[in-house]
């Protein structure tokens, strides 16, 4: 027995239960949802918002992330400027003042003082070093006056940065946030202010979700209007707008139930979850269109209401299962990702789709049963009163709103002839050759854009457009390009003998080696200062034993000028040195230099033989790029494999399976190419959408292929007759619901909108043009799938039949696809 037969039998049995007792199936999901939401409110312990920082966009087991956690553990940040990895720990705020005015002449005395104190990148006075590289931006120096330490007088600088560092253990962020509020109000003539703080990036990322909330009511109104219009006809009896409303309510219940379930389980809740309702509700009407279309196809079948409904649902049972399975499983694949943000978002979506499918099989079906009975009884869709048949002298408005219209077979025949002409055109060899040329051009353009797909996460895209945090990041890249913050090397010294002069010499040699490239220069290494200014002092005893070195080091760290180095040495519980920190200065800031810097510094440390690691904040982005590519490829391959497995189970025919696989691959190539062409980056945001697009693309391929296979004659014509209308309706509802978010000024949200629109457009192009031509060419007439014959005629209706004159007959599934039956109802 084929799997599609098992699916059809299950739906036939389940639908017969709903038809017999609709009220329990209506009340049950509502009671379950209200009970779950009530418990979530009663036992509410707060949202588990997890880590709403950059870490949620990084893989769990990424090496640079592990190095960061180790660095913070060994050397807790004390100074936000010196310990620049404090982005994940300490509290700070700073403002960049960029002057756009022309340079003003100064007095000779001021120029003399400035030439002495304004040196770049460092100002050294005795044992005191002032780091001017993090203060002055867009600097021009007098290279002819460079001293032996590489510092030169500043000739011109257009920007200055003021930094405020708070205690790292300060738990209250009110001051930091108030700094942003007050600074935002400041305005200066001929100058620009760029500002940020330790709270700015997380707060701005959360604002993406806040931007979505005002648009939820608009999405609901627009989709309600669309569904009501699409589900209506010019016949006041056969119109079913309430079924469209119910499908929206069904999807909304699923979203609320899924969120309540995961909140009760204390599953993380991230700001990007607020995109999920728009997505799930938009695709939540797809199955409703299929069920309603199947109901209308059986208009002329001699069945009573309940038998007709059972058979209608059984007819599309495979399509219903395919839609829910593929969408749900594609998100389930994403829920196994190494990225927290991907995992959380896909888990919420997958659970919502599961609840939506269960509610469709119960709540939505129950409502449909009642409204379908209302239709067969000849009652008005709104006022529920019985309407009389139309009369010849009725006005147009009277016929549309207050009369039961007769079936127009002529219109049905005209529509059937239209699809027959379309099928003949698509089966023509010249037309097929033209379609092939169009497809080759489409594929070439898509591949060309894929090869230009920019890789990696850009921090500026995590915030809304025109965000002050993004503006500050751009200002840093523009004004502080030559010298950046610091990067770090951590050397584990547990097995090293630091009292040995040779070991210390090799460590200094490593420091020279790490800071001699174009991507890093000398920063601040305590051992270099110790050897130059302290150990060489004749008053310091000669070091021969470990105890001698420890005494000398303690005296060094007790010196006021060198106390800052205490945070660069990690002592264990027994007082021995466990690890040391080397601080280096970043050179040539910018995304194009991050990967070479990581490769050079890591390679030189590895070749030195010292145990440890090198870390810079840019390494997180570099590693994330490589992990993202491998993760995307892995998830895409796994998702396509799962989708193909489902398709083969439901459609076990080789040529058809090949057509489905080619269509899925082709649609996703087009989607990725379109994303690249629209300026989207290959990051975890697009990774979510690409995995999502695989599930959506399967719907288009499998629906058309399945209905093509179950036809014996006129296969292309009949499959188009059945599937064009509901596929187009579902695609439009999905696109309309999500497109509302296109006005939201956020890269993250814009990427979701573009992906859905591209999937819908490219999926429709494949399902209505490329795939029908492919099926007509590669699928032989001998490859046929026997449709399941419904046994709804044996279902005993325990109610008094509404139309007792009808006789119960058993018809094969194929009779419903005769032209005179398909378009019995005017559109």
UniProtKB/TrEMBL annotation:
- Where is the chain membrane-spanning? 21-42, 209-230, 242-265, 271-292, 312-334, 340-370, 430-451, 632-651, 658-678, 684-710, 722-744, 756-779
Ranges of residues in domain SSD: 210-370
Q: Which domain of life is it from?
A: Eukaryota
Give the UniProt keywords, A-Z.
Membrane, Transmembrane, Transmembrane helix
Database matches in InterPro entries:
HMGCR/SNAP/NPC1-like_SSD, Patched_domain-protein, SSD
Instruction: Note the Gene3D superfamilies from the entry.
Output: Multidrug efflux transporter AcrB transmembrane domain
Q: Which GO terms describe its cellular component?
A: cytoplasmic vesicle membrane; plasma membrane
Question: Which BP terms from GO are recorded?
Answer: endocytosis; molting cycle, collagen and cuticulin-based cuticle
Q: Which PROSITE patterns match?
A: SSD (PS50156)
Q: Which family is annotated?
A: Belongs to the patched family.
Q: What is this protein called?
A: SSD domain-containing protein
Species in which this protein is naturally found: Steinernema hermaphroditum
